[in-house]
Amino acid sequence: MKKLIITACICGAEVTKDHNPNVPYTVEEIAREAKSAYDAGASLIHLHVRWDDGTPTQDKGRFQECIDAIREVCPDVIIQPSTGGAVGMSDLERLQSTEVVPTPEMATLDCGTCNFGGDEIFVNSDNTIKNFARIMKERGIKPELEVFDKGMIDIALRMDRKGLLKHPLHFDFVLGVQMSATVRDLAFMAGSIPPGSTWTATGIGRHAWNIAAATIAMGGHVRVGFEDSVYIERGVLAESNGQMVEKVVKIAKLLGREIANPAEAREILGLPPFKG
């Protein structure tokens, strides 16, 4: 079994300091949380950015500031900007995160429209998905295929048949939003992707740790962080993203799975070696 890649989703676009006062907003806070996750064993930082008041933004300049600050404290970590942004943002607004310098190694590619709850609908039309995939391929960016249910895997594979995706394909299964977060569902998702693909999984909210444990045992990779859950255990707020990564490392050790460093993660994901 390959070593475990741990992704830290350090702030997201929807959670706030009202949910957990340790959620980062400022450039300094984002760098601090990235460093805490990296030091604990994360090799990949999934990055949203905020203005200082917590408002989510896809502003290219803000992404550049945050990425530069993260590079100062974790030079070799894989930084994966989100192109999801927040509900209501335009396609051009969302793609700003891929325009930073140097060009990101990876970025997210959401593979379908999703109900986030209440009246919040995260819209990704076929044309949006196709255009995002085309632009990422032109820019040499490997997409992480964000899938919230089995149908989104099928959409991703349709884009692959059009020649728009880079191999090996890499998926992120987000469970507990549009699809339930059970081991049955996780196994179904993992069994639905092409041989040779890599995959990460995350359970939203209270599902974080059972999905993490099942994923580790099944040979997948794990994502945790404030974007997906603000609790380290039931009723106890996490102190940092690093504390959440530490918990994944402990589970992995109990299950006999070694942790990948950034160089090993790049090899597993089919990324070029880090050039510094």
Describe it.
It is a single chain. With 276 residues, the chain is of the alpha/beta class. It has one domain (6-267): Aldolase class I (TIM Barrel). Helices cover 36% and strands 20% of the residues. It is built from nine helices and 14 strands. The longest helix is centred in the first third of the chain and has 14 residues, at 27-40. The mean pLDDT is 96.
Using brief descriptors, characterize the structure shown.
alpha/beta; 276 residues; 9 helices; 14 strands; TIM Barrel; 8-stranded parallel sheet
Q: What is the CA–CA distance across the termini? A: 29 Å
Provide the structure class. alpha/beta
Total number of β-strand segments? Answer: 14
Helicity, as a percent range: 25-40%
The name of the CATH architecture is Alpha-Beta Barrel
What is the helix tally? 9
- Quickly name the level 1 CATH class: Alpha Beta
Shape: globular
Give the neighbour order of strands across the main sheet.
5-2-1-12-11-10-9-6
Element pattern in H and E: EHEEEHEHEEEHEHEHEHEEEHH
Rounded to an integer, what's the Rg over CA atoms? Answer: 17 Å
- Uncertain runs are none
Quote the average pLDDT: 96
The largest sheet is:
8 strands, parallel
CATH fold annotation:
TIM Barrel
